[in-house]
Amino acid sequence: MGNNNQTTSKEAVCQVFEKVNTGGVSLTAFELLTATYAADNFNLRDDWFGNQERKVAGREPRLHQKRVLQRLANTDFLQVVALLYTIARREADLTNGLKPEQAAAVSCKRVTILNLPLSGYCQWADAAVEGFERAARFLFQQNIFSPWDLPYQTQVIPLAAILINLGKRWEDDGIRRKVALWFWCGVFGELYGGGVESRFARDVPEVLAWIDGGPEPQTVIDANFSRTRLLTLRTRNSAAYKGLHALLMRDGAQDFRTGVPIDEASFWDERIDIHHIFPQTWCVKQGITSQRYNSIVNKAAVSARTNRIIGGQAPSAYLQRIQDQAGIDAERMDQILGTHVIDPERLRDDHFEGFFAAREEALVTRIAAAMGKAVLQQASEQEPVTESNGDDSSEENEA
Question: Positive or negative, the Cα torsion across 42, 48, 51, 52?
């Protein structure tokens, strides 16, 4: 009962602070926890942001050195600490003979963070940092290099908790493949938009148990992708759009002009972005609808310079121009196009519909392989909704 009163008290204090806050900014769990820990002479703000005067390095500057983590917030960090703390408590309860329904629950909800004792924070904060650093390495392996290409910021939270709990085993190929399958199921199943704290708490123990021979996690079971979803993936506002972009790069996509695989170095040096394969200008002249030419089926990752060469020309024209400028023959050009699962013959013939049908099928095959399950051939009753992901990037345009 005492703990419930403490919880209610903290929640009530938070609500009062929010009501009287003249700045109009909602008080976060981080700010309230900062006040709580201050009573024990611990400065949570310094621990997170750092303080040069007091010679405190800070966890945020260290984590933000990883480019893909530059949007990581202090509340994200606290959620991982809460997950690690409650997992340890639950394991201790089970070891001490408590039944599963009696053991502490795994949680990272706001109320759990507000009741995170300072001793628990200090015990698990370093592990949380390492978990996020492992998550950054994992994302790099999936060819996700920037925060705006990260499908879900939210999914990094359970990912970090999973990887730190695996210890060095996370580097083993078989285990990393299972983690990747869970990750891509979350992305293409579009399961991490909105309030997902309950999914986080379920994912971590379920994925860990699955790796040790248990049943598939509910996220893997729940994930479905419909073929028709490809037609509605048009901007970065969708996690699945970003995910497919990364998946093709991970699987060896090469720049049209240089033939260089798109890794982190080329991604930044060549200013790689997503652009139309059949240029928008050409498509408009042919009477092709924007719903089709703006679909990700008609998009590929290419460098800024390559995109300028493409311009608004027909594919047959710009392919020849690229070959002439890059000094490559048609056979090599076809190989490069194949890394983007593009049918070279349909592209050279300027056959949009034939190209579109062939690439749609190829993308479905790639997605199915990443998810470890077949793609739905028709829309489900409730088609996934395109969520914002906090990214309001406009539609990509060719030069």
Answer: positive
